[in-house]
Design brief:
Layout lengths: L1 H24 L3 E7 L3 E2 L4 E10 L5 E9 L4 E2 L8 E8 L3 E11 L3 E2 L4 E7 L6 E4 L1 E3 L4 E2 L31 E6 L11 H7 L3 E5 L7 E5 L14 H18 L6 E5 L1 E3 L6 E5 L1 H9 L1 E5 L3 H10 L6 E6 L6 H7 L3 E6 L14 E3 L5
Parallel strand pairs: 1-11, 2-12, 6-22, 15-16, 15-20, 20-21
Antiparallel strand pairs: 1-3, 3-7, 4-6, 4-9, 5-7, 8-12, 9-10, 13-14, 16-18, 17-19
Helix pairs in contact: 3-4
Length: 358
């Protein structure tokens, strides 16, 4: 009669196994998502690493990890592939490392990257979801393009250029560590005492005016009424970066100002930046205006070192804004960007399985 109990025991074991598995691994499995880069160019690759840690004494026969990318990233270099997943087993008290390779696809902050993990007991009766910590902060820079609207300007001599042979000692730029051969009269004694090492003053010539690039994300009046189309902002960012590279090709800087929300900044951004600095800032720009153009131009005009020559990129026409700026003594070159044309068809994400090496 003993053999009659054997099927009942097997059914009971199958029924109790999922409960025992869930109780053994619940709260003892955790994971994190990290990346090896913070910013990347379109087409560049970035490695997304998932670390799945099993702190229990129960083996995990089946662990499914799935990543869903935002529109700024893709799992394929030449087409939009948003979803990647992998399945593996994790031994007790062990850590599984999974790597995905993604590529920059479109400008902007790559948020949110959604990552999910489900633990199975091996018989398909139970899937236990695990919350993974997302530590990734990625942004894709604008594409490198030539100026689509060439200006009748000659940037040679515009930007401030540093010279050591004949420095303009009335224009102090910054300080740098002392090197052999630097004139003693250029030593900044107060800064040297504060920093604990000899530093000398750096000067730049002021033969010609600097330029300011102003990118306005205001798409309506008032500015909070509607947002800017993402494609329009991308086109403006690409044009602004092309201008910054064109103006700084002699080694200078430009004064860059924008009212677009950039990362955690909820105010207008005004700063002297290099071309790489402009690209880094525009990688985090969002199609949301934090203030209107009048407030942005007033903040830039009030600056003591504000250039008198501005290049304004805006989705709105100049109208009376140019007249108001001229009263402030500013010479403006205005560029208007219209809404993008409707494209035929839509881009759909495809689900693929990614080979991973645990």
């Amino acid at each position: 009669m003993t053999w009659l109990w054997l099927p009942l025991l097997m059914v009971l074991a199958v029924g109790l196994w999922p409960l025992a598995f869930a109780r053994a691994v619940s709260g003892r499995v955790e994971g994190t998502l990290t990346s090896d880069r913070a910013e990347l160019e379109p087409g560049d690759e970035v490695r997304l690493s998932v670390a799945l840690v099993n702190r229990s004494f129960m083996p995990i026969p089946l662990a499914k990890v799935e990543i869903e990318l935002p529109t700024q990233l893709s799992f394929h270099r030449e087409q939009a592939v948003r979803i990647g997943h992998v399945s593996l087993a994790v031994l007790p008290r062990r850590q599984a490392d999974i790597q995905f390779t993604a590529y920059g696809w479109r400008r902007g902050p790559a948020v949110p990257i959604q990552v999910r993990a489900a633990l199975g007991e091996g018989m398909g009766l139970l899937d236990l979801d695990v919350a993974l910590e997302n530590r990734v902060s990625l942004a894709v820079r604008p594409r490198h393009k030539r100026l689509e609207r060439p200006l009748r300007l000659a940037p040679t001599g515009w930007m401030t250029r540093e010279t050591r042979a004949f420095p303009d000692e009335t224009a102090l730029r910054s300080v740098r560590p002392y090197t052999y051969g630097d004139p003693v009269r250029h030593i900044h004694w107060r800064a040297s005492a504060r920093l604990g090492q000899l530093v000398v003053k750096e000067f730049f010539t002021t033969e010609a005016p600097d330029w300011a690039i102003v990118l306005s994300a205001q798409a309506s009046e008032p500015y909070w009424l509607s947002g800017l189309h993402p494609d329009t902002l991308d086109a403006m960012c690409e044009q602004a970066l092309a201008m910054a590279r064109w103006l700084t090709r002699g080694g200078g800087r430009v004064c860059f100002a924008t009212n677009a929300a950039c990362g955690n900044r909820r105010r207008a951004s005004v700063a002297w930046l290099s071309a790489d600095g402009v690209a880094s800032l525009l990688a985090h720009a969002q199609p949301i205006a934090t203030c209107d153009f009048d407030a942005l131009s007033a903040a830039l005009a009030r600056s003591a070192s504000s250039p008198r020559h501005w290049i304004v990129l805006s989705p709105l026409p100049a109208r009376d804004a140019g007249a108001r700026l001229s009263r402030l003594g500013v010479q403006v070159t205005w560029m208007s960007f219209g809404p993008p044309l409707e494209q035929e068809g839509q881009e759909f994400a495809r689900e693929v399985s990614r080979d991973a090496k645990p």
